[in-house]
Amino acid sequence: MTRNDQEFVLVGIRNQNANEAIARPTLSFWQDAWRRLKKNKLAVVSLWFLILTAVFALGSMVFLSQDQANSFNPNEIGKYKNLPPNSGLPIPGWDGKNVQPGSTTVTDSYETNGVSQHYLFGTDTLGRSEAKRVTVGLRISLFVALAATLIDLLIGVSYGLWAGWKGGWVDTLLQRIIEVISSVPNLVVVTLLSLYLGAGMTSVIIAIAFTGWVTMARQVRNMTMSLKEQDFVLAAKALGERPVKIAIKHLIPNMAGVIIVQIMLTIPTAIMFEAVLSAINLGVKPPTASLGTLIADAQSMLQFYPYQILIPSAVLVLVSLAFVLLGDGLRDAFDPRASED
Fold first, then answer.
1. Staple 160 to which of 107, 221, 272, 296, CB 3.0 to 4.6 Å?
2. C-alpha–C-alpha distance, residues 146 and 196, integer Å
């Protein structure tokens, strides 16, 4: 019985190039993390929101600097006091109309007072523009966030690397120092600094610098103790590389995900901390505006002019929430155990 080769077809085999082709492109660690982050819509929206907020806050320095003309001065006292927000459009609650104290009738405050310009966020009890002051407060909050980030990177990462790499009695001593620092309440530190340096941004930043890096140091220390026993680190030590070079070239890149996530979670804590301190007169000094001082100043007028406290509160909540959502998204994106789709 003869076999006809044409009756037999080999399934799944085409040619050598087709068999060796990689179906999916090879992704680096950062490309894979970005791919996972893009799947989290809330994290992506938060990222763009924070980028636009930072651009707006930094760009406003040109227009709201106190060195500019008085028309751009956020601390300029005006003659139109407690004006409601007015966008120039017939939007309920944003059309310049409100109920005056002692009255039940809704009136147009701009028409009553003969005001031709529109104040987007209204004015406060001294006639100052709320929009300008909220912008300055936002800038201060972002500056505190930047300070917290630099402190975490410089002190927390360095301290954690040193403790984890040395180990032994050095690690034990450094961990006892961290425990002592953690036991001191932040409010006590700020109060003492305010008595010595005076209330202001310097006291707030030093208080954050005193305790804000502790969590980062602990996480970096734990990662360092785990990574330093890996083969690639042992090979680098065998080749005679210095510890500093090993830390920069091998340890930090492999724990970059943990560092970035911790920073994203530290920033909203620092923003809220500054706002609370400013609200209790331990933060920035008047007349400089802060989101905390704006909220504290508007408490007495909450019944009659609620917008004065709602607007800075909303800005504070949105910025803090955006950092939290972005941090959650980054934590999932940098998790190597995340499921593949």
1. 221
2. 24
